[in-house]
Design a protein that fits this description.
Strand content: 15-25%
CATH class of the largest domain: Alpha Beta
Number of domains: 2
Helix content: 25-40%
Shape: elongated
Number of helices: 13
Largest sheet: 7 strands, mixed
CATH topology of the largest domain: FAD/NAD(P)-binding domain
Distance between the termini: 31 Å
CATH architecture of the largest domain: 3-Layer(bba) Sandwich
Bound molecules: flavin-adenine dinucleotide
Number of strands: 23
CATH superfamily of the largest domain: FAD/NAD(P)-binding domain
Length: 423
């Protein structure tokens, strides 16, 4: 792109054309058209924008969830509650309808476009930007943002093709997840240089890698209900029940993804973290022991693996028996007390030998970021730098799996877009 076409001045610069940035640009653009003409420019470092929207929800884009509450997020709940109240799920549904994207609800409560294509969502956002006279500039990576002194005030946004001066800047550079999409964490550095704090960041909604000596490879592809408990420095910090998926590298599935942030953040801080699974989610160890005794009394000749298969998948039952060095085919009445005790202990409190998480390339979102306390939750304006707005994943707020992270992007984008254009 030649420098001749490069605008050098505009009213609002949005840095980052992801879900949050495009939303902010649309709301700013629409407000600008209603009042007097103001120019809004979106700069993005990626050559083609919207990579993350396109890969989201397995290529279908889980736009939001039928019920969104602060407890679906990690971060300052008071602030999250206020942000969510400004743009509710009903508003998201209506807004997308106004963009020509009809949403459908699936059994899980997740909402997807009826086309089942993430492309529908991205195209609609880009089209509305164009209709609102928002200029989108891909391949424009922002390298520095300077505050301009009075009387000019505002900002000088330096990018790979020059410098753009603006009254307001919306920072929507995302986090660190999937860096090849363009969100490589440099936005944190831009914010830090402007005076913001950035809390420790760690991959979240990420699968976990297990010690190679574990039996996970044998179970690859198997998924079932578990209760997962994360213990950090001797204290249980999270407990949740859901579907676990065994894979060739370790464990994945919604319950693992949702719990992963506790393990990754603890590791990031250098704290000891352990993950335990109960394969009998609704049972205490005592109840499991009781059940085992009943089975031994009622069906003494039934094999161990057959008995366990009443409660857990057969492949897992077999592997657990081998793990505690017991023959899966042994008749249950012949199982020695120590073996039975070991088995019950592993059934109800199995320590996952977690070696690492799968890393930023596989993380769906970032835990940590710019503290929510540093923004005004009514406008998303920075309390540190007036005229700067912070939205989306760059903030210290991450949601669980199910469309919550996009809801956060739409809501913060709306607030900042509307506020940034008012001056
Ligand atoms: C595989 C995957 C699946 C997902 N599925 C879902 C889902 O179905 N539902 C859901 O709710 N969430 C999902 N998420 C999470 C969701 O995609 C993110 O939370 C959301 O996209 C964050 O939006 P954002 O606009 O804040 O950041 P991003 O989407 O990361 O956008 C940031 C933009 O800023 C640009 N940028 C970064 N630095 C610079 C710079 N220095 N200069 C210029 N531009 C810059 C980047 O190129 C990028 O385009 C998924 C994530 C992944 C990785």
């Amino acid at each position: 792109m030649s420098n001749v076409d490069e605008p050098t001045k505009c009213d609002v610069v949005v840095v980052g054309a992801g879900a949050a940035g495009l939303t902010a640009a649309i709301f700013a653009g629409e407000a600008a058209r209603l009042s007097d003409s103001r120019t809004i420019v979106v700069l993005d470092g990626a050559k083609t924008i919207g990579a993350k929207i396109l890969v989201s929800g397995g290529g279908r884009c889980n736009v939001t969830h039928e019920v969104v509450t602060p407890s679906d997020f990690f971060g300052n709940h008071h602030i999250i509650k206020n942000v969510l109240a400004a743009f509710r799920v009903e508003d998201t549904i209506k807004w997308f309808a106004s963009l020509g994207v009809e949403l459908k609800r699936e059994e899980t409560g997740k909402l997807f476009p009826v086309t089942d294509k993430a492309r529908t969502v991205l195209n609609a956002l880009i089209e509305r930007c164009c209709e609102s006279d928002v200029v989108i500039r891909p391949d424009h990576r922002v390298t520095e943002i300077d505050r301009l002194p009075a009387p000019e005030a505002g900002f000088a946004v330096h990018h790979t093709h020059g410098t753009l001066k603006a009254r307001r800047v919306v920072l929507a550079t995302g986090g660190r997840s999937v860096p090849k999409s363009g969100s490589d964490g440099f936005g944190y550095e831009l914010a830090r240089r402007l005076g913001h704090e950035v809390t420790a960041t760690a991959p979240a909604l990420v699968p976990l890698v297990l010690d190679d000596r574990m039996f996970h490879k044998t179970l690859s592809g198997l998924s079932h209900e578990v209760e997962l408990t994360t213990n950090v420095k001797g204290r249980n910090v999270d407990r949740r029940t859901g579907s676990l998926l065994w894979t060739h590298f370790g464990i994945s599935g919604p319950v693992v993804m949702d719990a992963s942030r506790f393990w990754t953040l603890a590791r990031e801080r250098g704290d000891k973290a352990e993950v335990y699974a109960s394969f009998l989610p609704d049972q205490t160890q005592e109840q499991a022991r009781q059940w085992f005794a009943e089975q031994a009394a009622g069906h003494p000749r039934r094999s161990l693996v057959k008995t366990l298969t009443i409660r857990i998948p057969e492949r897992l039952a077999e592997q657990l028996c081998l793990y505690v060095e017991t023959d899966p085919q042994r008749a249950i009445a012949q199982v020695r007390r120590e073996e039975r005790d070991r088995l019950i202990a592993e059934l109800t409190k199995f320590q996952m030998p977690v070696k690492s998480d799968r890393g930023w390339n596989y993380a769906e979102v970032t835990a940590g970021g710019i503290p929510l306390e540093e923004v005004n939750f009514r406008t998303m304006e920075s309390k540190v730098v007036p005229g700067l707005y912070l939205i989306g994943e760059i903030l210290d707020c991450d949601g669980r799996i199910g469309g919550f992270n996009f809801q956060w992007a739409w809501a913060t984008g709306l607030l900042a877009g509307k506020a940034a254009i008012e001056f």
